[in-house]
Task: structure prediction
Amino acid sequence: MSNAANVMKDDLIAAIPALRAFALSLSGKPDRADDLVQETLVKAWANMGSFLPGTNLRAWLFTIQRNIFYSQYRKRRREVEDADGQRAAMLSTAAAQPGHMDFQDFRKALARLPVDQREALMLIGASGLSYEEAAEICDCAIGTIKSRVNRARTRLAELLGDDASAELHQKRRGVPGLDSTLSAAQEDEGAGRRGLLM
Result:
């Protein structure tokens, strides 16, 4: 293996956590996210001759991953998989920690966003890409990415503010000592939310 191939291999391995996070945000399912990352890496390795050295490898990988996801999405469009989540809700167990419930509320709210807004928010907020890099990955104008991120943040704040606040308010009533426990959990989970909402 040449030195360039070794460097490329190391760069691909270093990009796996970011690819997995982006894949999970797109698919919403850990098993599909892992498959998507694997397909992305295989496709990138097979086409590494088309990568231009000196350009942004992460952006190139995210573009490959996004294209694979949308190709799969078009194929799976007709499949029906517990779309309303009732089956999954019957199988789930109530969380023991309020912070876990807050995180679940956040994941549900994130899943309710349109794919283009969720994708833009994850690229900017979670993956730390610039607006320019995200626009390149999504093949759209920078203003479009900024608009998508803004709409996503606004919608997340609405979803979390209305649903999550009302539930927490009802849980707090009549339970002594729960306010301090919830406040501590909200501070821990709130740090994660603020990263995407800011």
About this structure: Confidence is low (pLDDT under 50) at residues 163-194. The domain at 1-76 is CATH 1.10.1740.10 (Rna Polymerase Sigma Factor; Chain: A). The chain has nine helices and no strands.
